[in-house]
Every structure is written in C-alpha cells, then in structure tokens.
Design goal:
Layout lengths: L2 H4 L11 H20 L6 E5 L8 E5 L4 E11 L13 E5 L3 H4 L3 H5 L5 E13 L4 E6 H4 L4 E6 L2 E10 L4 E4 L2
Amino acid sequence: MNIEQKRGMSGNLKPFDRNDHTLYDSKGKQAFIKYLDGFLPYHLKTIENPNEHGIDLLTINKNTNKVVQTWEIEVRYGNWRDDTPFPFNEINCIERKDHQWRKSNEYLKKIPHPIEDDHQVCYVQLNAPCTRAVLIDSAIILDYPLKPWANRKGNGEYVRQVPVAKTIQIKIA
C-alpha cells in the first residue's frame, strides 16, 4: 500500500524537492519561532520537531512537558513576494497534509513528545521575506471540499481552498 492509499488521498503526492526544502524550510520555521517567542506566555516554548518527517513546529507547555499546539509552516516564495497582505481570495491547503489536520496516527507517531488530547493544529503560510503570515485552524481547513489542482510544481494533487476571510493574517517582522 502506498502513502496516498494509507492516507485515503484522492490525488497524488508531489515529488519532494530537496532544493526548495533547503532554501525555504528553515527560514520559515525560524521566522515563525522568533515571532512566537515574543508573543507566547513564558510557560510555552516552540521548537522545531526533531522528526524531520513530521509537522514542522511544536509548542510545548513547560509545566507539563506536553505539546499543546503544532504548526505546519510553508513559505510562499512564488506569488507572495512582498510585505503585503495575502494577495489572493483563497488559500490552497494541499491534501497531502490532511493527515495532520485530522490528527491521524501517522501524524501523532511523528511527534516525539507527550501530546495534550485537545492540542491544536495550525497551518501557517508565510510570504517570501517571512514578514507576514496567514494562519488557518485545521478544523476550518477540513470544512472545505477537495478540488483537483495543478501548478508549476506538479499536477494530480488535490487542495482544499479556504477563503482568506476564514483566516488570520498577521505581520510577524
């Protein structure tokens, strides 16, 4: 059984692009950690998930040593290059991340810390300079149907298109 079948996906997984990952992944995660460090109360600490195949960031309650929030980070380096609000009416939430929004066992197994039962999952898209972010609660993402999608990086994927009005936009730097 392949990954698409295990996740119950309608579409295909896009091939992993090591170059894009190297260029943007760490930059986005570090920018968002810096923002959260200045925003969250002292008893909460955000770290990179040591499991590189899991969700990107974990916010841990230092009093209980449990994960209370997880964050999937994506840098939009193609079409959101300026320090401006998100330039489209909808945000594409790629189906291959649905297992995270659903808090599936595959997602949970890749978090190497105890997890609060009611922990939150958030999708964060950053602009290319990592000065602005759009936040989407995972429960909102799952409210929208899957649609076939193709872009410059591939085809055969499905997305959930969430209206920007259902998101939170913030300036992080």
